[in-house]
Design brief:
The protein has 243 residues and is mainly alpha-helical. The chain has nine helices and no strands. The chain has one domain.
Length: 243
């Protein structure tokens, strides 16, 4: 637990430094230094890379899912990036709506949505956990094995996890809009999405490699144990976010 808190403190520290850099670069851009736009995009990418290492963003959900479902490395990679893309698009959509229709009280609405998004995310995670538990029990009863991942399941899991917008993306885009740099805000969000996609995909790939490196016949019992552990983690995470 101490290690986790220390690790989390390091992540938060780096994010704070990048936030300060981002603010300084926007100030320089406002002063007429147009080359700062490139630095802002680079910082957004790094922010996404580091931001996704912290709690949330579907890493634990994706990793748990790929511990349960048999899949290829390419599928894990696609799921990670698709989750990140949906995550970013939902953030862009909500932030743009807030900016266009609620400019006078945008901060209040932003804070309320930011808080409620975590609860909604917890509900989605519980739905995923229930689906995976049902899938395992059904497959064991029918074939005594776990079915491989289907493309429609891959898309469904990415949409379910990613539909909850990323507060980090929302903050950067909102900050850019309020300063009058809408296009730069969108490009920065895309850069941040790529950074998050790399981190989330790595979590999915590591979980997939862990599962695929095991001989299915020899370690079948352990694979099922991994599956139940992954589902338990999802239930705990979902309940924690709701509470």
């Amino acid at each position: 637990m101490d290690f986790y808190h220390s690790f989390l403190s390091i992540i938060i520290s780096y994010q704070q430094k990048l936030n300060i850099l981002m603010t300084d670069y926007f100030d320089a851009l406002d002063s007429g230094n147009e080359t700062m736009a490139l630095y802002i995009i680079l910082v957004a990418f790094l922010y996404g890379l580091i931001h996704a290492i912290g709690p949330g963003h579907g890493k634990m959900v994706i990793a748990s899912y790929f511990l349960v479902k048999e899949a290829k490395i390419q599928e894990a990679f696609k799921a990670g990036f698709l989750t990140s893309v949906v995550h970013t698009l939902s953030a862009l959509t909500i932030t743009t709506i807030l900016y266009l229709f609620f400019q006078s009280s945008i901060i209040k609405y932003f804070q309320n949505i930011n808080t409620n998004m975590y609860k909604i995310s917890g509900i989605f995670i519980l739905i995923i956990a229930c689906y995976l538990l049902y899938d395992i029990i059904k497959d064991r009863n029918e074939h005594d094995c776990i079915k491989p991942l289907k493309n429609k399941s891959l898309i469904a899991i990415a949409l379910t996890i990613g539909i909850v917008p990323c507060p980090g993306v929302m903050t950067i885009v909102l900050f850019s809009m309020l300063l009058g740099y809408f296009t730069l805000g969108v490009i920065s969000a895309i850069a941040m999405s790529i950074g998050m996609g790399i981190t989330i995909s790595l979590a999915a790939i590591l979980a997939t490699k862990m599962r695929n490196n095991m001989n299915h016949e020899k370690y079948h019992k352990y694979i099922l144990t991994f599956s139940y552990v992954g589902i338990t983690v999802l239930f705990i995470l979902g309940i924690a976010l709701i509470l």
